[in-house]
């Protein structure tokens, strides 16, 4: 049997024991080592957004293959990080490489339409090495490995900001995505400034190489940053950060909000959602080679049996950085 956390309604999950999935001819079954808690998981758990009753969430996971179909392209024993986002591969968006904009993504993706990583085992349909699964050596700590997916989100956002090498980039928020934006910008050659009200998260940003860390964007002079990468979706935080830009600056909005944000004239404003295939491949390479090591930002680990506690800590504990579920 295999344990999994099953969403039933806002704030309500069950721990279910189910048979270990049986792979189809080209499928693989992965024994999960760890799955990171994402901000979207918190929203799903709290509000029921992006998820329906009966769904197993969790999309930032890594594990080892324990069973395959006879036509599967991975082998038992392979340690894989999995790209959860899937697409139809036929529509106009998919044909141009924008898999994240495919209308079929929700129903095809692990954690949203298909069962995800808050489980002891996950069935991965037709995994393709180097495309939607990537082999990691045993030397890569699970605490580093679970960051591949959010790092892909960050790499995509930094690309949308335009060339950042030698430029001063302001990252708003130092939660999971914010720390990944910091890492992506730093690895792209930017000088990085992070704004984060929580002291623990400011410390994590320093540990991950931020050049400057502030509690409030109001400490920055107008025109002092070339680009803004927002991970919060908080209108006041975004507007405060934009106050440090100048006409011609890039502003990339990664955080999600349903409220209005005042945007001044003369800035290049882009919304960023998800990632393309190349972004995930690049993130997997950065983690596999040790160039991106975010594991030090993991502050809490919980078993599946303590899922509710894990969600509470991730959402509201001021001491929390990244939270990981370990089956």
Structure, explained:
- This protein is of the alpha/beta class and 327 residues long.
- The chain has 2 domains: 2-147 and 294-325, Quinone Oxidoreductase, Chain A, domain 1 (Alpha-Beta Complex); 151-271, Rossmann fold.
- It has helices spanning 39-47, 92-95, 105-108, 142-145, 148-160, 176-187, 199-207, 235-242, 277-288, 307-316; strands spanning 2-9, 12-18, 28-36, 60-68, 79-82, 121-124, 133-135, 168-172, 191-195, 212-214, 227-230, 250-253, 268-271, 298-302, 322-325.
- Strands 3, 4, 5, 6, 7, 14 and 15 form a 7-stranded mixed sheet that branches.
- Helix 8 links the parallel strand 11 (227-230) and strand 12 (250-253).
Summary tags:
15 strands, 2 domains, Rossmann fold, alpha/beta, 327 residues, globular, 10 helices
Detail the poorly predicted runs.
none
CATH arch. level architecture of the largest domain: Alpha-Beta Complex
- Write down the domain tally: 2
| Average pLDDT over all residues | 95
Q: Give the strand content.
A: 15-25%
Structural class given helices, strands, pairing?
A: alpha/beta
Range of helix content: 25-40%
**CATH homologous superfamily of the largest domain - what is it?**
Medium-chain alcohol dehydrogenases, catalytic domain
Instruction: List the total number of helices.
Output: 10
Find the CATH topology of the largest domain: Quinone Oxidoreductase, Chain A, domain 1
- Distance between termini? 13 Å
Keywords: Oxidoreductase
Cofactor: Zn(2+)
Protein name: 2-desacetyl-2-hydroxyethyl bacteriochlorophyllide A dehydrogenase
Organism: Nocardioides soli
């Amino acid at each position: 049997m295999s344990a999994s956390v099953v969403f039933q309604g806002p704030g309500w999950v069950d721990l279910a024991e189910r048979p270990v999935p049986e792979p189809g001819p080209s499928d693989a079954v992965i024994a999960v080592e760890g799955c990171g808690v994402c901000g979207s998981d918190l929203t799903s758990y709290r509000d029921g957004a992006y998820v329906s009753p009966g769904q197993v969430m969790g999309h930032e996971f890594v594990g080892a293959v324990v069973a395959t179909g006879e036509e599967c392209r991975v082998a038992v024993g392979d340690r894989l990080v999995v790209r959860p986002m899937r697409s139809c591969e036929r529509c106009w968006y998919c044909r141009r490489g924008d898999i994240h904009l495919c209308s079929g993504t929700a129903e095809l993706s692990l954690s949203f339409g298909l069962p995800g990583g808050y489980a002891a085992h996950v069935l991965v349909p037709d995994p393709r090495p180097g495309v939607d699964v990537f082999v990691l050596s045993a030397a890569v700590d699970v605490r580093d490995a679970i960051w591949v997916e959010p790092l892909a989100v960050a790499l995509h956002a930094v690309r949308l900001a335009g060339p950042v090498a030698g430029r001063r980039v302001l990252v708003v928020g130092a939660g999971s995505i914010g720390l990944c934006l910091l890492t992506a910008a730093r690895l792209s050659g930017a000088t990085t400034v992070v704004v984060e009200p929580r002291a623990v998260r400011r410390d994590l940003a320093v540990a991950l190489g931020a050049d400057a860390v502030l509690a409030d964007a109001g400490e920055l002079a107008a025109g002092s940053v070339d680009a803004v990468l927002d991970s919060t979706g908080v209108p006041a935080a975004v507007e405060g950060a934009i106050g440090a830009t100048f006409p011609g600056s890039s502003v990339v909005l990664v955080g999600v909000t349903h409220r209005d944000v005042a945007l001044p004239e003369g800035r290049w404003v882009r919304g960023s959602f998800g990632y393309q295939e190349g972004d995930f491949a690049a993130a997997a390479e950065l983690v596999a080679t040790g160039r991106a090591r975010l594991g030090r930002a993991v502050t809490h680990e919980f078993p599946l049996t303590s899922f509710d506690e894990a969600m509470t800590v991730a959402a509201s504990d001021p001491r929390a950085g990244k939270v990981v579920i370990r089956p």
